[in-house]
Design a protein that fits this description.
The complex is a heterodimer of chains A (148) and B (83).
Chain A lengths: L1 E4 L5 H9 L7 E8 L3 E2 L2 E10 L3 H16 L4 E7 L1 E3 L4 E9 L2 H18 L2 E7 L2 E4 L4 H8 L3
Parallel strand pairs in A: 1-5
Antiparallel strand pairs in A: 2-7, 3-4, 4-6, 4-8, 5-7, 8-9
Chain B lengths: L1 E4 L2 H6 L3 E3 L9 H9 L3 H6 L7 E4 L2 E3 L10 E5 L6
Parallel strand pairs in B: 1-5
Antiparallel strand pairs in B: 1-2, 3-4, 3-5
The chains are: A alpha+beta (148), B alpha+beta (83).
Chain lengths: 148, 83
Amino acid sequence: MIRVQKEDFDLGEELRALGAGNHNIGGITSFVGLVRDMAGGEHVGAMTLEHYPGMTEKMLEKIEAEANERWPLEASLIIHRYGRMEPGEQIVLVACASPHREAAFEACHFLIDWLKTKAPFWKLEEKDSGASWVEARESDDTAAAKWD
Amino acid sequence: MKILYFAWMRGKTGIGEEDVTPPAEVTDVAGLVRWLKTRGPGFEDAFQNMEVVRAAVNQEFVELDAPVKAGDEVAFFPPVTGG
């Protein structure tokens, strides 16, 4: 399942719901991305995530379908927030449930790596020197490419 | 044809969305970019360095040689930074 939303999410509730009622699930892995208060040595007061409504949902569904094709998952979840967030707030949740841990760990790692380079989101950081758009990092491309 | 601009592309062009009717010789994304650039300094600036511009046609990532036609939704934006 994928969700694009402005509101925060309850991590415990989401993970419980993901595994509920399916006793073939042996483990659930999750990754939660948070807003940091530093970027490039500068203090970040807040960030605003912009996205491309329509394409975002399409890409997240594609990425999730790809993970389900590659690994034997019983359930998967991607929640990505948009709008303004302050340091410490949750930005993104990726969770995978599988009979065995290897598939759950790998699929979760894959999902966040692909999402970072393929889902149309952009971060605007509010720093002491003003607001600036975050630049894409080559290391994110390298991380995504290892799953090609 | 509907054109969308995101992140700093929106800042530079000054608009998030517009409906345009490009001339008939515009048949692909690269041609569309060439034409859009003629429409003012903001557009010229936004498309100055195509290495940092990504494009999508009808919500699918495409390269610059991808075809475009009337009725398409074409989006321009910098490399994504979500997650």
